[in-house]
Amino acid sequence: MSGAGPDVLNHPFKDGRLALEVACRSKDWRLVQALVLSGAAVNGAFQGPKDGAMVALHAACHDGALTIIYLLLEKAPKSYDDRNWGYYSFPLSFAAFRGELDLLARLLTSGADPNLKDHAGRSPLHDVSNNIAGDVNIAQCLLDFKADPNLTSNDGDTPLHHACSCGHVEIVKCLLRHNADPSTRDKNGKTALQLAREENGEDSEIVKILLGHNSQ
How far is CA 63 from the centre of its chain? Predict the structure, then answer.
């Protein structure tokens, strides 16, 4: 980065993008590191395509660049709660959906809000419950940091709705232990039990778990 000072590095291109954002989107952590060491503003705002000003950490989360995420968190640990355009929305959402337990714990310990919602009203607990892998350790970590198991998305879904639909037995058990309400209905008027029956069958383990819970 010889010859390029902070004023140059932090001056937006015509399209509103910054050099650091472009580097993050390229997933080139060495380039990101070089830019930061040369004075690129880690929290410098660039123009996101939908929701206005964003910072480099958002771009890294959007593209799943884990090494860059850690690098940026060291330099800007307070940008973890900003919402973002893109699939992962914000750092904690990225960590939950991708099953990155170490990153998740680091963000939560640093004060990230476990109940922050994305544009669709989904919390990180929704993300892990709706993930194919369905990592119960991620769910447990979020709940340990006071994630609300009864938050509803814009569609009226709770994390329990998602976990039942996806067949995540251990997450269902975990949510119920933390007082998830199985009687909540989504926008179609369906409870978690109804979804479990539709997606997994009447004789499935999840249906039996929910019936047993309801009888208590």
Answer: 13
- What gap in Å lies between CA 68 and CA 12, rounded to an integer? 20
Collapsing DSSP to helix, strand or coil, 48 comes out as strand
Residues counted in the chain: 216
Question: What are 33-67's pLDDT values in tens digits?
Answer: 999 888 888 877 665 555 555 677 777 776 677 88
CATH number of the domain where residue 53 is located: 1.25.40.20
157-184 pLDDT, tens per residue?
999 999 999 999 999 999 999 999 999 9
DSSP conformation letters of 112-138: --TT---TTS--HHHHHHTSSS--HHH
Report CA-CA distances (Å) from 215 to 128, 182, 194, 209.
27, 12, 16, 10
Separation between Cα atoms, residue 143 and residue 137, nearest integer Å: 10
105 with 165, same domain?
Answer: yes
- And the tokens for 2? 């010889």
Q: 52 Cβ partners below 8 Å, 6+ apart?
A: none
Q: Among residues 6, 86, 135, which one has the least CA distance to residue 127?
A: 135
75 and 134 co-located in one domain: no
Domain that holds residue 9: 1-86
What is residue 17's DSSP assignment? -
pTM for this prediction: 0.80
Do 109 and 211 belong to one domain? Answer: yes
| CA 1 – CA 148 distance, rounded (Å) | 46
